[in-house]
Fold this protein.
Amino acid sequence: MRGWRIILILLALSAMPSTAALAVAPQVIVCIQCHAAQPGRLSKPVTLWQTSIHSDHGIACNACHGGDPMNAANSMSPASGFLGVPPPTSIPALCGGCHMGVTKHYMNSAHGIALGRGGPTCVTCHGSHAIVSASLALIDKKNCSSCHTFDKALMIRKAMVKTDRMLKAIEKRITVLKSQGIETDPLEMKLFSLRNRFHAMFHSLDVTLIRQESAHIQAEIEKTNGAGGVGTGHLVGVLAIGWALLAALLFSLIKKNID
Ligand code: HEC
Ligand code: HEC
Ligand code: HEC
Ligand code: HEC
Ligand code: HEC
């Protein structure tokens, strides 16, 4: 799983010329060096960011705020592309530079349509620096009933729960198969695209679409579980045949030697 994720992330990043160069080691990023030493609201982003998935992937301050991360004297000059603090209405486009699928769903949703008029931006739900881990647990009363009732939010969560569980179960099984030395790459690739498609879908807020897509994804997972697919059953079968052949070969070699 990890391997494929990393390869696909690298591919995604390499398709983004302006962001490909952003993955710089944190210790040489002047924004972090200087901001960590500032008081209050200027250093808080550093502490929060250090705990984030963005930090793990080398997505640093300049990926969102612009500026030159290597040159302390000019790091925040307009000439170096410094953008300052992004206003709420430009946040989706900013995050969307990397999270394209999610942002497309969001822009077409009731939330995207209400952008600038009381709708939430990406950071209302995810935060801007700590980036709260994204899961269905984010859909709760606390996060989703400050602007409207919780009913519609709950309907969406209910439409997603079963598929979410199925995806988690198959991820777990892959880990087990892997620990047994079984080749799981084809299965992982398939799972990777299914899970990405699924987890972007929440942002559409479209219950009908979510139900339709969930049914499709569930069918794909069932296929994977059954015979004939690139499923684990199939892989185990191939492996068993492999071992049987190897055993037969060894046996005939030993037998020859004895003879
Ligand atoms: C030498 C120290 C130093 C460096 C290097 C530095 N900053 Fe700053 N930054 C500050 C100080 C001080 C402020 C507050 C005063 C100001 O706005 O100029 C600030 C303000 C900011 C703000 C808030 C602006 C606002 O309008 O509230 C952001 C965002 C920011 N910096 C991001 C960055 C980024 C991104 C980099 C690297 C590309 C960077 N900084 C490099 C010291 C620094
Ligand atoms: C994933 C995008 C992203 C990254 C990475 C990021 N920021 Fe921000 N930052 C934002 C957004 C969006 C806002 C405005 C909304 C908010 O304040 O939460 C913001 C706000 C700020 C502010 C203003 C805070 C305030 O209370 O006025 C500062 C200062 C800042 N960032 C500095 C940094 C520094 C330093 C780093 C690197 C350690 C960093 N940011 C990394 C997106 C980002
Ligand atoms: C320069 C590219 C880039 C930008 C800009 C960016 N991200 Fe990310 N983001 C990533 C990468 C890389 C990952 C880690 C790989 C992955 O899970 O897709 C990630 C992961 C995430 C996750 C997944 C967390 C999880 O639990 O899996 C969330 C949520 C997220 N980003 C939100 C945001 C928000 C909100 C913004 C804008 C304020 C933003 N990102 C801007 C590249 C970026
Ligand atoms: C900052 C305010 C705000 C927050 C927070 C918020 N929403 Fe909304 N939401 C809106 C607005 C504005 C609309 C459009 C008008 C309406 O339907 O009330 C909307 C509409 C919706 C709709 C209706 C979509 C449609 O097509 O009819 C759903 C579903 C929804 N939100 C789910 C959520 C969920 C789930 C959360 C929490 C994860 C959430 N909202 C958090 C502001 C918010
Ligand atoms: C109303 C709250 C809300 C808003 C607004 C929102 N998100 Fe999300 N986001 C969520 C929830 C809930 C999930 C988890 C969905 C799931 O588990 O399938 C999520 C998942 C994600 C993920 C993880 C997808 C994955 O593959 O695991 C990313 C990345 C992300 N959001 C980025 C964004 C960006 C970028 C924006 C703005 C364009 C945005 N989100 C706006 C609530 C929100």
